[in-house]
Amino acid sequence: MNSQASAAQLATLKSSPSADDHDTLTLAFDDNRLLSLLFGEHDEHIALIEHRMGVAITPRGNRVSIRGMGPARDGAKNVLSQLYQRARRGLEISRGEVEGAIRMNQSVHDKEVKEGTVRTRRKLVMPRTPMQKNYVEAIRKNELVFGIGPAGTGKTYLAVACAAEALMNGEVDRIILSRPAVEAGERLGFLPGDMKDKVDPYLRPLYDALYDMMPAALVTKGLAENQIEIAPLAFMRGRTLASAFIILDEAQNTSPQQMKMFLTRLGEGRRRVITGDPSQVDLPSGASSGLDDALRVLKGVQGTEQIKFSTSDIVRHALVGRIVAAYDKLGAKVKSLSQQR
Prior knowledge:
Elements: E1 8-13, E2 23-29, H1 35-39, H2 44-53, E3 56-60, E4 63-68, H3 70-88, H4 95-110, E5 118-119, E6 124-125, H5 130-141, E7 144-148, H6 155-168, E8 174-179, H7 195-213, H8 216-224, E9 228-232, E10 244-248, H9 256-263, E11 271-276, H10 290-297, E12 304-308, H11 318-340
Parallel strand pairs: 7-11, 7-12, 8-9, 8-10, 10-11
Antiparallel strand pairs: 1-2, 2-4, 3-4, 5-6
């Protein structure tokens, strides 16, 4: 290859997406002797770019395949090309240089996306209502955020997106997703299978959101290495959770004691989001909801924020909004009649 040619050339770009909507781009480098500097010892530079930019990089000879969603894939290409040019000039490529190239690329990219956009490994998630935007901003600013409102408003989805973004950017070391195992009157003891089989149905919505934000292989790896943990709320007792992004979903089904237990699992460098719909409590009749209790006790406490969604924030099928509004109307009527008696 001519030494005056571009140091890193685009060799192929698959025209059709893969099974999980990713494309693969292949770079060809003209000097194999420089690749050990570019890749780092034991390919540590490659691993860092993969982790921070949400791509999969496979070296083969003088070629490197980069697999990922368009913006992340193209960004990784730019980072590798910049670092390779540095190696050609005889300059050192340290971990700090790789970090700097990644930050510079992300800074340029961030100027091109709308305010409030959440950048995950698989997609850009954009708030679709003003309240969703407020929710994302609150999560980024506060250690503890409550997302309260009806189904379909994106409470859990946006929280998981923010968690995936924080993990990708190195702001936290792990993600912990939790739910109370209380649903529609069922009890774990009556469900078939071992403990994992019993609790997985309760946690499935969290799995679904996570796989929507991250490539399946990275989710599987994260689960295996405890970088991602999905567990019932009861498993949180006795733990101090540091450097983690923690989401408690369906919090209306916690007791006040459970909620206090969860809130007091303090640790440095962690963020916590609690989501729930006070109108859909599945606790036994007469039992108090820990969510209602916490909203009242923590109102105005520094470092916390409460975001309350309404039917106007529902982003699922339009019929969902009308259904929720109809139930709210009926509930208000029943409450009015009860007060008149």
